[in-house]
Amino acid sequence: MLESRKIAHLINSIGGFKSVSLIGTKSHSRNTNVSIFSSVFHIGANPALIDVIFRPSPPQRDTLSNILESGFYTLNHINESIYKKAHQTSARYDAAVSEFDAVSLTPEFKNGFQAPFVQESLIQMRIELKEKIDISINNTTMIIGEIVQIYIPEDCVSPDGFVDLEKANTITCSGLDSYHKTIQLARLSYAKPDKEITSLL
Amino acid sequence: MLESRKIAHLINSIGGFKSVSLIGTKSHSRNTNVSIFSSVFHIGANPALIDVIFRPSPPQRDTLSNILESGFYTLNHINESIYKKAHQTSARYDAAVSEFDAVSLTPEFKNGFQAPFVQESLIQMRIELKEKIDISINNTTMIIGEIVQIYIPEDCVSPDGFVDLEKANTITCSGLDSYHKTIQLARLSYAKPDKEITSLL
Fold first, then answer.
1. What is the ipTM metric for this complex?
2. Is A11:B152 a contact under the CB 8 Å cutoff?
3. Which domain, by its residues, includes B66?
4. Is B8 in contact with A77 (Cβ distance < 8 A)?
5. In this protein, which residues make up the domain named Flavin reductase like (chains A, B) (predicted)?
6. What is d(CA B5, CA B1) in angstroms, rounded to the nearest whole number?
7. Does the residue B188 lie in any domain?
């Protein structure tokens, strides 16, 4: 194995578990695109903002150019039944090929939104592009988007707003190719000095 | 419950599972600080870069000012035996209080590095500040750092460089207060068009 590939595996996994989701987009020429990303991060709740880091190389290029062209994209959680199809979207398909067809995922258009959702995802989000920040130090691009609509099964949301990702079968990933389901240890009470934390529920 | 708190829970958890780790720092006046962060993200393997998003408010303020003052910090994985102590570091202690003492975690100084590691962590990283980017849209600060040294048990690294986080007991989190251990589903082969993916061992 090439040393650079080994370093890529090491550094991609050393940071810990990551969220992993499918981003759905549509180009001006109406091609749909769906691609797996483990570089989607929550950056603030009010406004509800997420960022995505894009590497300079394909196949992420199609997703990035579609987002910049259209201003819209969808974020779709990956569950245990679709993670292999989701992983397959990372193959370098031609721009004219829709990964939806290539990996047999179902594009879903709803409420007049331009970008396709992934019908097999239980948790889907409609995102609007807000800002593009170039990170010159390693030639990556950060795209900040606002979550404008959330589709989620009602029984996956707790009374306090917490989303039960396990009930939605959402999985996590590590490194470039490892997928994991989870077992909740606890939810812990809000921490205050001189007060012992307790498990909620 | 206040509506804003409910939105905070919802938006903090809707993005999926997150890495969660402890950042260790030291101030000019030699106070040590350790604080839990679920906003640490991998942004590139070569150079090995991670970023951390800081909110404008305390208690994250001490960590941020120590990083900007000293240029150095440590990143320490959280395992099942210390996650409650790790959560407790999020309480708003005075700047003069070391969270190491307050929550009974052990600061570890080694190889002449200025910032303290968390001795109880099986995976530790030495980080050097590289760049500060202000994200004006929601008044947060992104700190980009380079991983300059990694401490990890040898048996947690696969021959291809992949880090077996489960062997290191590293956990993941969701939302503001939920902690989870993981069960690996599979590692999948590198995806190529017209080639079926297979499970790696």
1. 0.95
2. no
3. 1-180
4. no
5. 20-155
6. 7
7. no
